[in-house]
Design brief:
Jelly Rolls, single chain, 3 domains, 6-stranded antiparallel beta sheet, 14 helices, alpha+beta, 10-stranded mixed beta sheet, about 700 residues, Alkaline Phosphatase, subunit A, disordered N terminus
Length: about 700
């Protein structure tokens, strides 16, 4: 166990009653596009009037039972990256997706096969795991012969999924592939980016042919019946678990990311007999809008789960209701999709913005038996101003389970950016030890004509600069060069302690020049470290082997060496060409000559090994008129697709074919890092690219 994780675990263990099970049940509910102002549980915080405030009594109930966080944030201002970070404990911009969401009918999985998730964490600790709702971190379909499908047009919906929730830690799943309006057969008028509708475990429920679906009957995909369907499946999962004899020894984990209230607004008529559409009310008693009815749908679904837990005896703790030893969390995936002071409270902007309104969200948590609130909804409840991110859930749950986090310096992966806030859950005062990051900023156009939204915002409270504390809640915005090229260029600076609405940009104020330099240094280091938890083990300066270094080192042999500052790399060419391949060095970079071009083509690969443990910070690839495809793999770990820029980008026709790949992680001495141009999973287009540079850091 990491030293920082020991204290909260001791606090938790000391608070257990003699007969209390040590592993609580977990119910994690995440709404879609719901801002702080969308729930009356935060009305006193946002300042909404009764006429403007939707009444959400079940969220108020949960807040009174537990702890309400007022400085909780999503890791991104959009849904796909937030879901990735919540499940993995890794900042989402460390994937190929630097902004936007997975788009298209398939949206290749962001989570590789061997990456730990909350699902696998709980499975490995004896939990029964279930998922209901919106997945949106990527799927992989199959062709009719069972092989992986490259896209929608070669997929057969009667075949089981090749990759989905069951491959990432869930025993059962009822879900939509992405947002409900685009997940069904009619999701795209052109037909190329539709979806299969309801998916249960691995099967497309309504499929009647490779890409045909039933439109009638109880399984027809109807948007305004999803609320009750998901709620019913959640209760089905819980009832099945309770009826199983294993319940006496196994806890459960239910991940419930609802489709509501992402547009289009399609509230269900009712859930378990409780009316939804037309039933939402403002705090002054007036009727709510259709959008707010859809928000209210989340409240009704939450109340049904809380009632079920209250009314169910705990088979692992006789004489107690399940609600006593169940962690219940309610939150949102990003700020509201509407930009107004009612939805987002007093904060600037909304969804897809790095301003506070885009990522400061509701976060309510209760666990009576674990000291997280009292579990009594007649009490006022507790408040916490602790700074926290959804990516912190992995480390927090690991603390709760007394589970060690993956050892990153030993080459393991997982929870790279996760920080436990269990003490804050339990009412302790806690100061965040690491920066908090948020990415994707639609207002990036103010930075210049290009307006690349791959902006990264970083929050550090009361930093120590040159030995002196600089009081404040400091938030800096870095232009897209930090995520794309590892170069920090501060564009905005705010002190949220004095300016929570982010109106006074201090970036040009010379008074803060030293602070800005410090923040840029921290941002650059954390961006390039491969994970915040590994930063302290990698405080050596970066070593870059340039295009000139590569060109000067090659020979007519398959392997050559690069040496700099005590680090020695061996670069080896691999080829299945009859006559092999030889090194080429052109103005485009390092390539191989055995294929169709002087680049690395299909059938060719480059392998990198080191004489000591290193962190591979980045590799600069250039494709030019080629294709930035293929895969890379460290040792026997799961392969990942090679990218040069965003995959599934918003403007698909303008993909840049050159870019810098970051976040490879630790490469142990002698372990190969393979970069191959062969099609990822054998069905995509092969790559054709060169290497221009690579940057590494030795471990301490």
């Amino acid at each position: 166990m990491l030293a920082a994780a020991v204290i909260p675990q001791l606090i938790y263990m000391q608070g257990l009653r003699a007969d209390q099970p040590t592993r609580p049940n977990i119910v994690l509910i995440m709404a879609d596009d719901m801002g702080l102002g969308d729930t009356s549980a935060y009305q006193d915080f946002t300042g909404n009037s009764d006429a403007d405030q939707l009444a959400t009594p079940q969220m108020e109930r949960l807040a009174r039972m537990g702890v309400r966080f007022t400085d909780a944030h999503t890791p991104s201002s959009r849904c796909t990256p937030t879901r990735y970070a919540l499940l993995t404990g890794r900042d989402p911009w460390r994937t190929r997706l630097k902004h936007f969401v997975l788009y298209g009918s398939q949206g290749d999985p962001l989570i590789e096969a061997d990456r730990p998730t909350l699902g696998t964490l709980f499975q490995q600790n004896g939990y029964r795991t279930g998922m209901v709702g919106k997945w949106h971190v990527g799927l992989r379909y199959r062709q009719s012969d069972g092989r992986p499908a490259a896209a929608w047009l070669d997929a057969d919906m009667t075949q089981p999924l090749l990759d989905g929730p069951l491959d990432h830690g869930f025993d059962a799943a009822w879900f939509t592939s992405r947002s409900h309006g685009t997940s069904g057969p009619d999701g795209d008028p052109l037909g190329s980016k539709g979806g299969p509708g309801h998916i249960e475990n691995r099967m497309m429920v309504t499929a009647t042919g490779p890409r045909t679906f039933t439109t009638e009957g109880p399984d027809a995909y109807e948007l305004n019946k999803l609320g009750s369907r998901h709620s019913d499946h959640a209760i089905e999962f819980l009832n099945a678990h309770a009826a199983n004899g294993e319940s006496a020894t196994k806890p459960f984990f239910l991940y419930y990311p609802s489709n509501s209230n992402h547009g289009p607004y399609t509230p269900d008529e009712s859930i378990a007999g409780r009316k939804v559409a037309g039933a939402g009310r403002m705090k002054d008693g007036s009727s709510a809008s259709t959008r707010l009815d859809y928000v209210y749908e989340n409240d009704v679904a939450l109340g049904r789960l809380l009632d079920w837990l209250d009314n169910q005896d705990d088979p692992r703790w006789p004489g107690h209701a399940l609600s006593e030893n169940t962690v219940v969390i309610f939150t949102s995936d990003n700020g509201a999709e509407r930009s107004n002071s009612t939805c987002t409270g007093p904060f600037r902007s909304n969804k897809s913005s790095c301003y506070e309104g885009g990522h400061r969200v509701p976060f309510l948590v209760s666990w009576p038996a674990g000291g997280v609130g009292k579990g009594d909804d007649s009490t006022p409840g507790l408040n916490s101003a602790t700074l926290t991110s959804h990516s912190d859930l992995f480390a927090t749950f690991s603390d709760l389970l007394n589970e060690e986090l993956p050892n990153l310096t030993d080459g393991e992966k997982g929870a790279e950016d996760s920080y436990s806030v269990l003490p804050a859950w339990q009412g302790e005062s806690q100061t965040r030890a690491t920066p908090l990051f948020v990415n994707d900023h639609k207002e990036a156009r103010q930075y210049g004509k290009v307006g690349d939204p791959a902006v990264l915002a970083m929050r550090i409270d009361n930093p120590v600069v040159d030995g002196e504390e600089v009081p404040g809640q400091w938030k800096v915005f870095f232009g897209a060069n930090l995520l794309r090229r590892g170069q920090a260029n501060p564009r905005e600076l705010y002190n949220l302690a004095d300016d929570p609405q982010e109106q006074n940009n201090l970036v040009k104020d010379r008074k803060w020049k030293k602070l800005l330099a410090y923040l840029a240094e921290v941002g650059t280091e954390r961006r390039s470290s491969g994970g915040q938890r590994i930063s302290d083990a990698c405080n050596h300066p970066s070593i870059t082997f340039t295009q000139t270094d590569l060109a000067n080192a090659i020979s007519d042999k398959p392997a050559f060496q690069l040496k700099q500052h005590g680090v020695s790399l061996t670069i080896t060419a691999v080829s299945d060409r009859r006559n092999g391949s030889t090194w080429t060095a052109t103005s485009a970079g390092l390539g191989l000559s055995g294929g169709e071009s002087p680049r690395v083509d299909s059938g060719e690969a480059i392998i990198v090994t080191a004489d000591q443990d290193i962190l591979v910070e980045s590799i600069h690839l250039f494709a030019g008129e080629g294709a930035c495809g293929g895969f890379y793999q460290i040792g026997k770990a799961a392969p990942l697709s090679i990218y040069c820029s965003d995959a599934d980008a918003e403007n698909e026709g303008t993909k840049d074919q050159t870019g810098i790949m970051h976040d490879f992680g630790v490469l142990k001495a002698g372990t190969p890092l393979k970069l191959a141009a062969a099609p990822f999973l054998g069905v995509e287009s092969p790559g054709s690219w060169t290497i221009r540079s690579l940057s590494v850091r030795p471990l301490n």
